[in-house]
Write a structure and sequence with these properties.
Pfam families: OS-D (PF03392). Keywords: Signal. By secondary structure, the chain is mainly alpha-helical. The protein has one domain: Antennal chemosensory protein a6, CATH 1.10.2080.10. It is built from seven helices and no strands.
Length: 125
Amino acid sequence: MRTWVFTLCALTVVVSCFAQQQLYNRYDNFNADSIIQNERILLAYYKCVMEKGPCTKDGKNFKRVLPETIQTACGRCSLKQKDVVRKMLLGIRAKSEPRFIELLDKYDPTASNREALYNFLVTGN
């Protein structure tokens, strides 16, 4: 009986870790350029993450990972993910500086990581 419980717990941990990694890698092939070029779609993503409009499945996932992404300046991101996040944030900033600041204020309200985030936006690292 103990072996069965231990095996079940171990399997749960492995599946959970795998699912989390798969979800995190989901946007490795995401085309940020097509979203940035379409102001209507970019605004829809913005409204979703700011809780001002409906969310698509992708929008919900972005909203879920955005707090950590902004607070760590994309610290756990792969190189491709860093490129996507950087393009999206710079795209929002280029279209509307006030919206960009509002987004940062929502997900990093203490501005504790603002310098690292701006450095990431400039350098990509």
